[in-house]
Structure formats: C-alpha cells, structure tokens
Amino acid sequence: MTEVHRRAEETGLVSGASVKDAWERFVQGEDDVRGVRPEIAISWHRSRDQYRVDPHLSEAPVAVAELAHPLEHDVVFAELGFCSASMAHEVAKVGGVVVIADAAGRVLSEWGDKATLSAAHGAGLAPWFCWSESAVGTNGMGTALGTYNPVVIRREEHWAQAFHDWNCAGVAVRDVVSREPIAVLNISCWRSELPAAVRSWLYNAATHTDRTLRTRARDGGAELLAAYQQARARSLDPLVAVDTSGKVVLADEVASVLLGVPSNTPAIDPAVRWIPQLPEFMHAARFASKQARYDPNWSGSTQIFTHLTADEPAPIGIRPVFLYGNLVGHLISFCASDGEQLPQADASSALSTARTRTGSDRVVGVRDNRTVLVRNPEILLAEAADSDVWLSTDQGRLRSAAAGLDKLDNELAGAGFLRVHRRYVVNLNRVREIERRDKGELILVMDDPDGTTVPVSRRNASAVRRALGI
Q: Which domain covers residue 380, as residue numbers?
C-alpha cells in the first residue's frame, strides 16, 4: 500500500466499496483482502479464524459478569471520565458519543448526542454490554485493546455487518509496568464521519492518563528499592526486587547471575527494567501479583530453574510490597520459604518442561495486505521503531503483528532470542561475529548477506556475553 493511499484511506477519501467487497469475500471464507488496511485484515483473521465471531450478529452481547479489578485501576477510570466529560460537548456537536470500557471490553459509561445514544443502545453500545474483539469482532474498542496506537474503524471495516453504519475510533490505556490494557476510550459516529480532531482528542486523553500512571510507577519503583534495602540488611540470601509483571528493579550479585540480568543497577523507571529470560520466574511473579492484589497478607514459594541450576530447581520465596495499599511488586529471595506453594499447574508442572521449552515456533508478520507466518530460524532480529515492531527476516522486512517489543520478547522467551538493546531483540543462532569497539561497546554482526549490525547496550552486555559464551 502506498503512503498516498494509506493517508487517503485514513482520512476517509477512499471509497468503502473495495473494503465492502473484501469483507463479503472474507466472510465467505476467501483470504483476498485487497483494499483493506493490514491492521484491519489481521483483526478480521482473528475475528473469523480465532474467535469465530458471527459476522451477522445484530448487537453486542451482554457482559457475562463484572470483572474484579485492582483499586489502582479506579484512578484510570476517573481520569478517563474527566477527559470524556470535557470533550463530550464537542463530540455531541458532530453527532458522536464518547464511551469508556474496561480491559474486557465491558462498557462502563458513555456521553454524547441523544439521537446517536439511542441508536447506540439499539446495537448494544451501552453500559454492561461487551465490545471485546472476541465478542463482536473488529471494532473501535475491542481492536484498540490489542494495540498501542489509536485505532480508527470505518464502516465496513467492522467485522459485524450490523455495525457497518458506524465510524469509530478508540485508544487503549495500558499499565506502564505490565503493558496490559486497563481501559479503552472510544468515540463513535452513526452514519456520519468522525471529526477531524478525533485522533488528537484520543491521544491527549491517553497521554494525560499515561502521565499519571508513570508517576505512580516511579513511586512504586522507589518503594521497591526501599523495601529491598531493608530486606538486604536483615538477610544475605540472594535477593531481587521485581515489579508486578516480573521485571527486575534491582538484583544483588548472586541473584543477577541466576537471572541473567545486571547486578546492583537500580531501575525506578519502568521503561528501563530488565526482563529475565526465565519464563517460569516471570510466571511465578505474575501469579504472585494476582494473589496479592486480593490478599495483602499473601506470600508464596516455589522452585524454578535458573541459568546456574539447569539440573535441579532452586527454591524461591515471594513477598509482596505495597505503597498506600496498592501492590507495586515483590521481593524474591533464593532460599526455602514457608509461603504458600504455587499450584501445580502454575509451578511444578511448568518446571518439568523448563529445560525443553522452545517458545513459540512462528511469528506473525504483515507485508502490505498479506499476513506472513515466519519460522523463528528465519528471523534475524526484531526492531522497535516508534510504536511499530519490524522483523528482519529471510523473507525481507516485515511489520510484526505483536503489540510492542516487550510482548514479542516475552513470546520468544526460551526460543533462542535475547533482548540486547532497548530497541532490539536478536536471534542468537544468527549472530556471526562480535565486534568490540574502542570504548568497549559490543556490536553484533548477523549472518545475513548484508552483515547487519546490532548495537548492544551497556546494561545488556553481560547477559549477551553469557548467552554467547564469550
């Protein structure tokens, strides 16, 4: 797709006829998606092949149940409510409605033009109805929950035919630590075009909320460091402080070797925290977060394989850390603990496959209007560029369908890939040479015909040396 065509389509200047024709072919089982934006084509594939959503459903389903959420998510709902109320008058003037939904796509509240609200209620666009992609297919809210950018869904781009009279735009607000969605803000117009300023409205609302979340995450990082120092003064057992997603905030020298991360390098900012390449460790930390959010007195224990304990698992104890009643992370010590044992399905059964784990064997990429399945050995590296992730492969350069480099890094954990830089994940099996520059910087030379070079950041250098045995 040319840049001219892309811009024209995004601004609504391209006729929807080609999209309508593609939709009719696609729902009949064909894969021809000419004239459809790549992100829409990928969403259609999920709607049809993964979620099996009926394209002829007449309205969104009622949400199955009210999902419990952490108290800190109320801050996000309140912030978005304030932003929505401030823009509702402008949206109503163009016949639109503003909607807030939670991470499950369950509508919480809405404001806007009365006539459009009436039409919205007839389609189930109302509180307590579910608009996740798995429930209704491609739509502004559900599809936005799967990406990091504002999403515009125009008329026939909606998966369900009943919503082809709607133009919608949504943006998800994500936890700055886990990168999981918390809520989504959506603007919809019925039988009329979206206002020109819709992207900036959504972007400003998401940015305002994200700023609040980042401040809270840094405060949480500082609290984790303080708790780490207090625990360090009481015990000499190997110790690491992690956030709620399992990313390392600070590790001592022994724990850093076990996890393959730098030692004594504080990371208050969530953007620079380490992701240990140990899936079972990350799983244990995330399980602990789920438990501790609803039971502040919870503590846990389990066993994991580490980089130094390949033949026998190492015991760990997990103790949650809170700030003003909100969970901010955990202190994990490498020693026997009397905390609650993690369930068999979450810990012990996973341990038996730890050493044979190979991760995902394929990655989904996009080229123009085509979805491309790339085998892991064909991938040289993944590179973050703005909000997109690009794959350098034997099939050429592809845009990854993964929403962010962190997510792709997690998907490839245990499959021979390593995060070597804030912007790069590389296939270690495709590294041909390692260059050392004058100031000690490491440069990886890949085995493609062009000899692509990848910089290694200083904080990742020790993990790269260990992984490559240099």
A: 362-468
